[in-house]
Amino acid sequence: MPQSRPELPVDLTPPAQLPWFKRLTARLLGTGLSRLRAQHRDSWFQGHVVGQRHGHADGHREGYALGRVEGIEEGRQVLVIRDTRPDGHGVPGVDDNLFDDWRLPITAELKKRIKSDVAQRLPAHAQPSTAQWKLIFSDTPSTCVIAGAGAGKSTSLVLRILLLNHYLGFELDAMTVVTFTRESRKDFIKKLMEVFDLWEVRLNKTQATELVRTFHSRILPMVRSLPGLSQLQAFENLGSPQQPGAEASSESNPFDLRINEAQRLQLNQCYRDLHNGNERFRELIGTLRRHALQLKPLDRDHPDVQKRVAVTQLSAGRDEELCDMVEDLWFRAGCWPIKGIEPNRQTIDINGSAFHCHGYIPDLDTWVVLGFDPSENTHFKRSGAKLPVWAEWVIKRTLFQAFCGKPLIWLDNYASGKRLLQSLAADAVAGPGFDYKVKGELGSAPLLDCFVGAATFIENLGLDVSTAVGQMIFPRDDTDREFFEALSLFWKAFESHLLDQSPPIMTFNRMFALFGESSPENLHQVSDPMLRPLSHLMIDEFQDVSPQIVSWLRASLREIRRRGPDLNTGRVARHSSLMCVGDDWQSIYGWRGSSPKFFMEFTKAFASPANTRVMLSDNYRSHQYIIDAAEHIVKAAPAISGKKARASGPAATDPLPVKVFDRDDESLAQTLLEHYRRGESVMLLYRKGSDKAAIAEHLQPLLNHEAGLAPDQRRFRQLTYHSSKGLQADAVFMLGDCQHVTRSPYKNQVYRQAGLGRAGDAEAFDNAQKDEVLRLAYVAITRAVRHCYWHVEQVPADAPAVPRASTQVSAGKAFFEDCRADQKARQ
To answer: What is the per-residue pLDDT across 737-759, written as a single tens digit (0 to 9) for each?
Structure first.
């Protein structure tokens, strides 16, 4: 088959297809050229066709490549309009952070330099751990430090201040270190000055005192800076002796709810004015007085009633003579008659027998019986009687409690008579003159003291008293309903009364509320120099902060950020920061309105663009058994996860178990004296004042010896469980269990109003207190360096079931030695 020739381009016609004349001409020319060797026809034909084909392909390829490049380039310059935007419109987010997004300028070189200086200037035992260095070098706006018992946090905080001031140049007036108590403040100031001296940095007592503050000593100058309030006094400081030139709140204890005479005068004056001018308040006080003073009934099946009902007729036969004798005693004491009480010897039927009362109060429609005052001779008898007068009077009282159907006031002593006299005298500046017991409180107290206690608790939770009362509900026949209505009327009048004084007076809670989140505009009036010390805050014991304080802190930090760079023009210290140090296991002041919630939810409570979390797990105080025993007690309470302390101090070797005994005051005193004679420091912790008094007779020689020593030579201290926090001793003796024995309807209600407790919990406060008794035991145990002895009362079989910390003791653990009788019986 002949080889096919390649197809020619369309613009070239093959010779065979040419007209005959052109074919002839091409042949003649081609033959001639071939003879002249100028061209070979077949080669020309072949070359023409092949060359054309290859040239066309190469040209097509090069043209395509060049055209493609140029096309892409031109395509880039074409604007394609295509709407790829989402539906709707853009909405900017809200910046809720309390801080700017900034970092402390702490470089690697600076860290190396500081560590070298610390190694040279501080002794070996005071060198920071890795976790403590993390605290010191934290560069984020907010820092949360979980520091367990004996964690060595004080030295770390001092080094943090040294870093800010000495190494970074931050001005001292841009910082505040907050402590909760006067003693901890004094200790921290001393340590701060000692460390600064080692660096040869001048820090005098005035500068250190201005830097280390309590919340209350910081808020008072802030309020005094406002127009017209430069001489303002704090109600809590009235009557407290002050040193010249010292901040009033620096030397007082704002958490002491006991009312002194100067404070009571203001309370009584307000009460008098409100009682005279407000009819509804008078009605409420009358209801409360009748309830408080009336003899409390006893069930007729009560054992005391059953024992004494058999002598009802015998007791009635001698009653008139007894009334004469008791009335004479009151008359000789100058306590009878009482103005406002008609001395009417009325006969009252008691279980079918005739008894007598001493008087009648028309305003209260109530009868009065005079009691046997305990100050009188307890051996005083009727002629020929077997029982003393006081015993015969007890029988009468019991019968009246069980069978008297009339409203009756039983005046137990002369003091109660004087208080009643004062309350009935409308023109007396003496207050209500009777005690009241709010449900859930351990005991009764003067009515105005109850007002102060309830109002303080409500305000500590960040609530307004009148608003909170308006949201409470009580059963119709519950007198607490009248109590809180009266409180609402009184507290509003009292705050106005205080401001009307010259100089004006204000409670600390109202000061904090003035600058809280509900009224941020008030902070706009505070000057830069007054606000600036809150820029860089370091707060110790943060687990005990209250919602009221948290609101003030957040409002102040927002105001600092709002003012921006203008607040610190020309200064090294810029922006703001917050470092909070605490231990949720040591939160033990919930009964006054504090809560560990804000520490446990730190990043939520103090929103920040960046946060540092530090866990100080080393315990430089106690050995491991004490640590483990305390943590075992508290483990049932909610806590920050990941906590487990380890013994790292000198006491870490040879651990001894925590010994738990049935209460035996004599045995406790004997063991305590043995430790004292060894030269050890000893601490006795008690829950109630009566416990302290009971043990005193066994420790009298030791108490006398200690009284003759200088304070720095004493090795024995007696403290309540609460007041022991922050202290330590070689041997600790715990007297009494930690238990929650009441139920508080009103505190449960306001606790929920404040957003505290578990969601949906109808008894939020009471359940929080059940956790707190465990934490209180943890605090007490961790005061011990080497030895811990816990004496708890035996619980009667018929005692009501209440939460007790001692039930968490586990005899199967090596860190406990349970020596109680019931435990031995089980073994």
So the answer is: 999 989 999 999 999 999 998 88
Q: Which residues have C-beta within 8 Å of that of residue 190, sequence separation ≥ 6? A: none
Same domain for 648 and 611: no
Taking the chain, what is the end-to-end CA distance rounded to the nearest angstrom? 118
Q: Is the dihedral of CA 385, 387, 390, 396 positive or negative?
A: negative
744 lies in some domain: yes
How many angstroms separate the CA atoms of 739 and 327, rounded?
43
- 817 Cβ contact partners less than 8 Å away, ≥ 6 residues apart: 657, 658, 659, 660, 811
What are 591's two structure tokens? Answer: 């009964």
Q: What are phi and psi of 714, to 5 degrees?
A: -80, 140
Six token digits for residue 538: 């370091």
The secondary structure of 252-302, three-state, reads CCCCCCCCCHHHHHHHHHHHHHHHHHCHHHHHHHHHHHHHHHECCCCCCCC
- Stretch (H or E) spanning 406: none
Last residue of a domain, one of 461, 493, 525: 493
Residue type, 492: K
Whether residues 376 and 462 share a domain: the answer is yes
Examine the domain organization and report whether 565 and 611 are in the same domain: yes
The pLDDT of residue 1: 46
Mean pLDDT for the chain overall: 89
- Cβ pair 198, 121 in contact under 8 A: yes
Instruction: Confirm whether 734 is domain-assigned.
Output: yes
**Quick one: which H or E segment has residue 617?**
none
Check whether residue 670 and residue 727 sit in a common domain: yes
8 A C-beta contact, residue 234 and residue 249: yes
| CATH, residue 559 | 3.40.50.300
Q: Using the 3D structure, point to which of 493, 518, 538 is the last residue of a domain.
A: 493
Kindly calculate the radius of gyration of the chain based on its CA atoms and give it in whole angstroms: 43
Q: Is residue 75 part of a domain?
A: no
The pTM assigned to this predicted structure is 0.84
Residue 7: burial class (beta carbons within 10 Å; 0-12, 13-18, 19+): exposed
d(CA 794, CA 807): 12
Say whether both 488 and 513 belong to one domain: no
- Residue 471: which residues within 8 A CB-CB, separation 6 or more? 749, 753
Q: 270 and 391 in one domain?
A: yes
Sign of the Cα pseudo-torsion (417, 420, 422, 426, in order): negative
State the burial class of residue 571 (Cβ atoms within 10 Å of its Cβ: 0-12, 13-18, 19+).
middle
Full residue range of the structural domain in which residue 488 is found: 262-493
For residue 135, give the nearest of 126, 125, 146, 127 by alpha carbon: 146
277-281 long-range contacts, Cβ below 8 Å, gap at least 24? 278/489, 278/493, 280/489, 281/486, 281/489, 281/490
Examine residue 517 and state whether it is found in any structural domain, yes or no.
yes
Token pair in block for residue 283: 């009605």
| Element at 508 (helix H, strand E) | helix 508-514
Task: Indicate the number of domains in the chain.
Answer: 4
The Cα–Cα gap between 373 and 413 comes to 4
Nearest to 774 by CA among 643, 578, 570, 633: 633
Whole-angstrom distance, CA of residue 473 vs CA of residue 457 = 18
Q: Are residues 611 and 647 in the same domain?
A: no
Give residue-wise pLDDT tens across range 762-811.
Answer: 999 999 999 999 999 999 999 999 999 999 998 887 777 889 999 999 98
Question: What is the CATH classification number for the domain harbouring 816?
Answer: 3.40.50
Residue 783's φ and ψ, nearest 5 degrees, are: -75, -20
Q: How far is Cα 495 from Cα 499, in angstroms, rounded to an integer?
A: 6
Q: Which two tokens stand for residue 260?
A: 């002194």
Same domain for 386 and 466, yes or no, is yes
pLDDT digits (tens, 9 = 90+) for 378-431: 999 998 899 999 999 999 999 999 999 888 999 989 988 887 887 776 554 678
| Encoded tokens for 520 | 């941020």
What's the maximum distance between 2 C-alpha atoms anywhere in the chain?
A: 182
